[in-house]
Automatic annotation (TrEMBL):
Molecular function as annotated in GO: carbohydrate binding
Family named by the database record: Belongs to the bacterial solute-binding protein 2 family.
Domain Periplasmic binding protein, first and last residues per copy: 47-303
Name recorded for this polypeptide: Sugar ABC transporter substrate-binding protein
Location relative to the cell: Cell envelope
Length: 325
């Protein structure tokens, strides 16, 4: 009888060993490629730097600033992201960084429930600090340590002030944004409206023209058809700018219009140089990259704890000629 029990125990042990081995294989042999172990000194902190649209001129500058500061500060920076705006792929990059147990994550903020879950629950459970850069998310919903980038509310006010200076204190203004509006767009919108509320002869029209960050030109056409007398447009989401100009040009010259955008529009400076738009809010992307890495290193070294929860704001300015400053 004892022999039978011993054989059963041995068999059960073998089965459990095999099952454990299989489970481990499922973890380590998936198509999730975790960042390689750092070849740098073990004393150098490993920080993931995660972006959307990594080939976009704006984000290229953010990354350049971050890499420059990482060399100065002695940070092993793992720059990763996607070449586009696929939300699921972007969120997967964040999740991979968390599971690879980096020391910190600097990331372009995304106002989405999954992003907030990753930063508020998973990253926090691993003790990984999060800093948002360029685009923020509500601080109470993400538990990010700080934000580095433009004061979007003030940038909206700056743009509204330029519009009044160019157009005068009366008229209609269409404010173009996504239907699924992100936090940074809402901040810009609030700043624009706050400034224009002081001008009773200005009527603002909020145009939510689709969930896509780069809507079909038919949506822009419908907008122009609905407001045929309006001559002032602000692309709160800069990605709408090119389609707006293209559609206006199929109908008339752009000269009578007052068109404004932000420098995240790929063709912003070319459009300004050709006289097709009237002004750009120019941000400071390289400074965003530099300061975000600097603040992360200070946090990890416990030199600046806590970081300013409201954020560290970089300069914005209105550009009326085509040469970036």
């Amino acid at each position: 009888m004892r022999k039978i029990v011993a054989l059963m125990a041995a068999g059960l042990g073998g089965f459990l060993f095999y099952s454990t081995f299989q489970a481990a294989g499922a973890v380590f042999y998936t198509n999730w490629h975790l960042p390689a172990e750092s070849k740098e000194s073990p004393d150098r902190p490993r920080v993931a730097f995660i972006m959307n649209e990594m080939d976009h001129p704006f984000w290229v500058e953010v990354i350049a600033g971050a890499e420059e500061q990482a060399e100065i500060a002695g940070v092993d920076l793992d720059v990763t992201g996607i070449y586009g705006t696929n939300r699921d792929d972007f969120l997967r990059k964040i999740e991979i960084a968390i599971y690879s147990k980096v020391d910190g994550i600097i990331v372009q903020g995304l106002d989405h429930e999954k992003f907030k879950e990753l930063t508020k629950l998973k990253a926090a459970s691993y003790g990984i600090p999060i800093i948002t850069v360029a685009h923020d998310v509500p601080k109470e919903e993400s538990l990010r340590k700080t934000y580095v980038g433009s004061n979007q509310f003030s940038a909206g006010e700056q743009l509204a002030a330029q519009l009044i200076e160019d157009m005068g204190p009366e008229g209609e203004v269409v404010l173009m944004m996504n239907a699924e509006q992100e936090y940074f767009q809402q901040q810009r919108l609030d700043g624009i409206k706050n400034y224009l509320n002081g001008h009773s002869e200005i009527e603002t029209i909020e145009a939510k023209i689709g969930a896509d960050s780069n809507p079909d030109i038919s949506a822009i056409s419908d907008l122009l058809n609905y407001y045929p007398e309006t001559e002032a447009y602000i692309a709160v989401n800069a990605a709408f700018t090119q389609n707006l100009v293209t559609e206006i040009e199929t109908r008339s010259k752009v000269d009578p219009y007052y068109l404004y955008t932000f420098d995240e529009e790929r063709e912003a400076y070319a459009l300004l140089e050709s006289g097709k738009i009237d002004g750009i809010v120019e941000q400071s992307p390289q400074e965003m990259g530099k300061i975000s890495v600097q603040r992360m290193k200070e946090w990890l070294d416990k030199e600046n704890v806590p970081l300013d929860i409201e954020g560290y704001f970089t300069e914005t300015r209105i550009i009326k000629d085509a040469a970036p400053q």
